[in-house]
Structure formats: structure tokens, C-alpha cells
Design goal:
Shape: globular
Helix content: under 10%
Structural class: mainly beta
Oligomer: single chain
Number of strands: 12
Number of domains: 1
Radius of gyration: 17 Å
Strand order of the largest sheet: 1-2-3-4-5-6-7-8-9-10-11-12
């Protein structure tokens, strides 16, 4: 696959890359992250914003040195959750790089990612369940370009909890963009976390999530008269 830099070509690795994504606080969904390569070096980080991070409308993806690579922001008002990504630290009037929204294919839920300003209106589809750390990002040609998988401890072969997982990025695909999608998935799938508390109940985790109702107060206050996106 040819190299596709969406956020930063520094993070388009030639080989397929397995990144370990770790939540830096285990108490709150949608909190901070540290992302490591196979050598244990930090590649990306996202700072934690404390207990109300869950409802935070803006998250910033940084490299190991704290340089801002990407800002993702919840678009308001919108009837369904729609997020947008901006290069670097978003400035006033800056155009979005891409947008992300839930899209329901009958019988399964998916997330659609549209790249703005790309030739041929490029888009990606994310299918599977992020809440159970099992989903795939497909490009327009239906090639898998990134995958999120449960991480298994190499020595004990035990499946680790959901707070640490693999982000597998195909060679040439922008891993900074892939990690930006993880941040958004973590926010829009926060709803699903109510369905099983903690890691104790693994039963039924892989079922489809299309029948879950949004029951957070921030969904309820939106009115039908607002922009439908």
C-alpha cells in the first residue's frame, strides 16, 4: 500500500506496526492515553482531564515530546454524535481535516469517517465493537488499514483488560490518524460501557451494539430542529 499521510508522514511506518494503547486512568472512560511501540517507547500521548473528561468536547493527540499533532472536537449542535479532526492545535476558522459519525447499516453499527478535500471524497468505514476492543478500519477499497484488538500477555497468554489494547496499523497507513480515530471511538462508544461494568462480565461482550439506546443526558437535550448531520 502506498504511504498515505493524513496527519503526519512521520507516523506512516513502512512496516505493519503494533502499537500498545494504554488508558492512563482506569477510573473514567474517555480519559488519557499513552501509546507505545514494540520497543516500549512512547509514540503518542493524550493528557487526562479528570473525571469529567467523559463529556469533554475536545481532545488533543500529541507526540512523545508533547507536540500537538491533531485536535478532535465534537461538533455541536448535531443530532447524532459527529466529531471533526483538525491538524495541530485547532485555530479559529481552521477547516476540518475529517469528520466521524455513527452510521447504521441495518443489523450492525458502524462508524463512517470522511476525509475533506481529498480527491474523490475519500472515506473509511469502522466496523465491529470498539467497546469490546475488536474493530477494523476499512478504506474505500475494503482493505483493512487498521485494527483494534484485545492484547494478550506474551508470557502468560492471559487476555488483558480493556484498558490496554493493540492498535495494529498496516504499512504506509498514518498511525497518528488511526490513533485520532481511537480517541473518537472511545468517546462515542462511551454509551456502550454502561452495558457491562468493569471487566468482570465478559459474557455477551461481542454482541452487536445497534440496539442500545443512548441514555446520557447530553443526548436527551438535543432537539429535532437542530442541524441533522
Amino acid at each position: 500500500m502506498k504511504s498515505v499521510a493524513i496527519v503526519d508522514d512521520t507516523f506512516c511506518f513502512r512496516e505493519e506496526t503494533h502499537l500498545t494503547v494504554q488508558k492512563t486512568s482506569l477510573f473514567f472512560p474517555g480519559d488519557g492515553f499513552s501509546v507505545y511501540n514494540c520497543q516500549g517507547k512512547v509514540v503518542f500521548r493524550v493528557d487526562s482531564y479528570g473525571p469529567d473528561a467523559r463529556f469533554k468536547d475536545e481532545l488533543v493527540l500529541m507526540d512523545a515530546l508533547g507536540k500537538c499533532l491533531l485536535t478532535v472536537r465534537r461538533k455541536r449542535p448535531s443530532l447524532h454524535q459527529r466529531w471533526e479532526g483538525f491538524l495541530g492545535e485547532k485555530s479559529e476558522g481552521q477547516k476540518a481535516l475529517f469528520s466521524v459519525r455513527r452510521s447504521s447499516i441495518i443489523g450492525r453499527s458502524a462508524v463512517t469517517v470522511e476525509l475533506y478535500g481529498s480527491p474523490g471524497d475519500e472515506y473509511f468505514q469502522i466496523e465491529g465493537s470498539f467497546a469490546s476492543r475488536c474493530c477494523t478500519v476499512y478504506n474505500m477499497a475494503r482493505e483493512a488499514v487498521a485494527e483494534i484488538k484485545r492484547k494478550v500477555d506474551a508470557s502468560t497468554h492471559v487476555v488483558l483488560g480493556r484498558d490496554v489494547f493493540w492498535l495494529c496499523v498496516k504499512g504506509g497507513f498514518d498511525s497518528a490518524f488511526a490513533m485520532g480515530l481511537v480517541l473518537i471511538l472511545d468517546q462515542i462508544n462511551g454509551d456502550d460501557l454502561d452495558d457491562y461494568h468493569g471487566d468482570g462480565n465478559e459474557n455477551g461482550v461481542l454482541e452487536d451494539h445497534h440496539h442500545h439506546h443512548h441514555h446520557h443526558h447530553d443526548h436527551v437535550v438535543e432537539h429535532a430542529s437542530e442541524e441533522v448531520s
